[in-house]
Design goal:
Order of helices and strands: HHHEEEHHHHHHHHHHHH
Strand order of the largest sheet: 1-2-3
Helix content: 55-70%
CATH topology of the largest domain: Growth Hormone, Chain: A
CATH architecture of the largest domain: Up-down Bundle
Largest sheet: 3 strands, antiparallel
Radius of gyration: 39 Å
CATH class of the largest domain: Mainly Alpha
């Protein structure tokens, strides 16, 4: 008969040891669950994100607070935390609190943010092409000189028409001014016949319009020398300036479209016009202060015109268009024939001739020789005439 193994009863010391082990395991699981349900204080406090958003260490030192979610409103970030009920880490019935996770901006930063919201598109600089900044810089400078010029031309026109010296009756002054504006509107309608040239020759038209704007300003200033010719000179000047306004308005959208990277053409246009208006107001204010010292009109016009034309030229040259017109196509063909490569988009736009005005008659593109140079007599042509019929030359 095999020996029987008798089961010994556990001693009190063994029972105590096993109970402690089970209690220790249970407490370990409970602590692990609490740590898993709440963020680790050291990780939150030491992470770069926590330092950037301004989370302080005391908010998550213990397990009494649990992070629920984060929210961003008007550029400020908020953390929603809940008080854990009874320290069990669940926090289902705890009180919810909103904690701002961003330090308040300095007054200077708030002011810069306010200015940026008016002068640059949302998402700048990623929302526009790199050529946007130089274009807007030269555009602002051009509007600054234009606003300064407007003060002197308006003052000269009023003096010439007789408002300041009471040489004319109010009715005659009003009639002359209305006729001047009416002539400008007629010129605006006549120049609209350029059609598609506003799309593919917009650089040339924009520069030509700015030159006409300065020409009109010069004619307006000339009325001070011959005030008895106010009406014809003012009408001619207003025609030139309204033609320039047509070119500026018509070429505005294609230029801004070249800068926009997404569906933000409206935003780019609005901010661009805002920058132009700000520069115009600054130029107007400066010229008002200068005009009180009665400077020389010739010297003032020369300086302001040089600044205006130079800024306009640089503004147009900074535009990078993604399409081909006659001028850019000529640059590409010439570069390919000379170097064997096609120029880049930036290079092609920089080498484009913007002084070839669209209203001038373009020379026809000649491919091959003329008939009289190719055939010396009729017999040589008649011998190969069937080839022209076969290949439909």
């Amino acid at each position: 008969m095999p020996p029987m193994k008798l089961k010994q009863s556990p001693s009190p010391q063994t029972l105590a040891t096993s109970q402690d082990a089970r209690l220790l395991a249970r407490e370990t699981l409970r602590i692990s669950a609490n740590l898993a349900s709440s963020p680790a204080p050291s990780a939150v406090a030491s992470s770069p994100e926590a330092r950037n958003v301004g989370i302080v260490d005391e908010q998550f030192v213990d397990a009494s607070l649990r992070l629920i979610c984060c929210e961003e409103i008007n550029g400020r970030r908020w953390n929603y935390v809940v008080d854990n009920e009874g320290g069990n880490g669940r926090g289902r019935n705890g009180s919810l609190r909103a904690v701002c996770s961003q330090n308040p901006q300095a007054p200077v930063d708030e002011m810069m943010s306010f200015i940026r919201s008016y002068v640059v598109p949302e998402g700048f600089p990623d929302s526009v092409t790199p050529s946007y900044v130089p274009y807007m810089t030269w555009r602002a400078l051009k509007h600054f000189f234009g606003g300064a010029m407007g003060v002197f031309t308006t003052q000269t026109l009023l003096n010439s028409v007789g408002v300041s010296r009471n040489r004319s009756a109010p009715g005659a002054v009003a009639i002359n001014w209305i006729l001047k504006d009416g002539a400008g509107r007629v010129g605006k309608m006549l120049f609209a016949r350029q059609g598609k040239k506003f799309d593919y020759d917009l650089k040339q038209l924009r520069l030509a319009g700015d030159l006409l704007m300065e020409l009109g300003a010069g004619v307006e200033l000339a009325t001070a020398a011959v005030p008895h010719l106010f009406l014809p000179l003012a009408c001619a000047a207003n025609v030139a300036k309204n033609v320039a306004a047509v070119t500026s308005t018509s070429t505005r959208t294609p230029i801004y479209k070249a800068f926009a990277k997404g569906e933000n053409i409206g935003d780019v246009t609005a901010k661009g016009e805002c920058v132009g208006n700000i520069a115009d107001l600054l130029g107007t204010g400066l010229s008002i202060m200068i005009s009180k010292r009665n400077p020389s009109l010739v010297t003032t016009f020369a300086l302001l015109s040089c600044g205006y034309v130079f800024s306009s030229y640089q503004e147009v040259k900074s535009v990078v268009l993604h399409t081909l017109n006659r001028a850019r196509f000529s640059v590409a063909i010439d570069s390919f024939l000379k170097t064997g490569r096609v120029p880049s988009l930036q290079e092609g736009n920089m080498k484009e001739n913007i002084f070839s005005f669209p209203w001038l008659e373009d020379k026809p593109i000649v491919l091959g020789s003329r008939f009289k140079d190719a055939f010396q007599d009729a017999g040589s042509y008649l011998s190969i005439e069937p080839l022209f019929e076969v290949y439909s030359f």
